[in-house]
Amino acid sequence: MSSSADNSKMWTVRVRKATLEKFEPEDLLPDTQPAYVSSWIYVFGVLTIAAFLMLIVSGLILTLEGPAWWHTSKYGHFINSLHLWNVELFFLFMVVHLWGKFWMAAWRGKRTMTWVTGCVAFFASIFTGFTGYLIQTNFDSQWIATQAKDGFNAVGIGAYFNALNTGQALLIHVSLLPIALGVIVVAHVILVRKKGVVPPIESSL
Amino acid sequence: MKKYDASKKWTGPTRPYDLIKEATVAFVVVALLSIGLAALFSSPDEKAVTLQSWSQAAPADFVQTASGELAGSTISGQYGPPYNTAADGQQLGPIKVAKFMGVRIPINTANDFVLKPLGTLNDPVTNAAIARWKAADAKTQSGWATDYTDALTKASTAVTIADTNDKYGPVPTLVTSLYAMAKSGALDGALTTSDSPLPTNFTKPLLFLADSGSYFPGLADAQHLSGDQWGVMNETGSWPGQSWLWLYSLWYQVDPFKSSGNADILVMSLMGLLSLGFVLIPFLPILHRIPERIPIHRIIWRDWYRSERKNS
């Protein structure tokens, strides 16, 4: 058996040490926060994440009996309604959060990546929401698909992402995009916890 | 007084904080709010349109479109990449991205939307019409189908035009057979299963449907979903749609985008540029200073500034 001293050069050990050094438990789950974090605007970040979790829950229930189930089941229709209103709340919270962070100039103090990951999460959410509209398997999805194809085709994306291919949109919506969005959101939250909440502009403490 | 370095770890006054409690309360609030909204307002579900329902509700529009597919004169027939080479696709100045990407989803409207589905019928009269069509040269085919499409359009409500002088060749037979096939529902099946017996790709029936001259766009117009009705961000009925696409939708309402044949590539490129600019605000001069110049932060942090004034 090799000693711990021998293991110290292994990449796995080095990754563990670097992670523990960078992300102290106190940073990730603090029991205090700066006194300036005292406004309703701060609620919208956590509300966005709560709505995202609700979207995952309602979305997972919708997957159980296939994409057309909700047309014929009252319970399915309710879950679809829940998913729709989750989407509306998710975007409402996220847009308020985003504008709040803009007016706080929240990229200050080496927080550029926090801003960038937040914006990328917003645009990834727009595409995720859009693919959701494509897989409704009703008139709305038919119309959106036939109109949106022109935008994608015009910029060459349509050659690979075909809005009229419901199967492609369905798989992307329920697998690739939620995973990608989840990773971006986790990265964003870790950055927020690691860098801390941006202090007030012109604060002189 | 010296300004606080925003990159340093906060060493000033703090307040108690319970992140797990905050997240739990937020989740419960959002869950209750969503359940309440879903129970109160439900969600829309306008039934999907089929080639069968279209042919039954608007026969003249269907046969005009079907004849147009044979002539290659419909939106799909004239589209260009990624479906065919009838056009170059939209361009941004000299840049033709669609053409560069090429024909990735080949569609020949006459073959894919009319002749192949009709071939599945195994009807001797229809098969003879298909054989006559295939034996003719492209110019003759185009002449027959274009003339027949024009005659149907002129007749407005007719589903067939008498052809005593054989002016339209096999086209009236082909279109009439396709119309009967559509009414029975067989055309929907033939188009959706043309690539796979267990279909998940609806490109062909949807492209055919989108070629409809009046029926399909009329349904969208009635649901305020058309482009000039800010349709990109609307939903059927009175439900809220993708309101976050308001800026994308806005460009389609104004010139030069509204009247441009390259509106889609112009709007997509502009939105791509604006989105990139939004992400890169921290690096953009002037823009990254806006929050300091317009003191909305004074409202957000009013308690903090008040306590700072008191302490000083």
How would you describe the overall organization of this protein?
- The complex is a heterodimer of chains A (205) and B (312).
- In chain A, 68% of the residues lie in helices and 1% in strands.
- Chain A has helices at 4-7, 11-22, 25-28, 43-63, 74-103, 112-134, 139-154, 166-195; one strand at residues 32-34.
- Chain A is globular.
- Chain B is mostly helical.
- Chain B has two domains: 19-42 and 281-311, no CATH class; 51-222, no CATH class.
- Chain B starts with 13 loop residues before the first strand and ends with a helix.
- At the A-B interface, β1, α4, α5, α6 and α7 of A face β1, α1, α4, α10 and α11 of B.
Q: What number of domains of chain A?
A: 1
| Poorly predicted regions of chain B | none
- What composes the largest sheet of chain A? none
**CATH homologous superfamily (4th level) name of chain A:** Cytochrome Bc1 Complex, Chain C
Structural class of chain B: mainly alpha
* CA gyration radius of chain B, whole angstroms: 29 Å
**Distance N to C terminus of chain A:** 54 Å
Main sheet of chain B? Answer: none
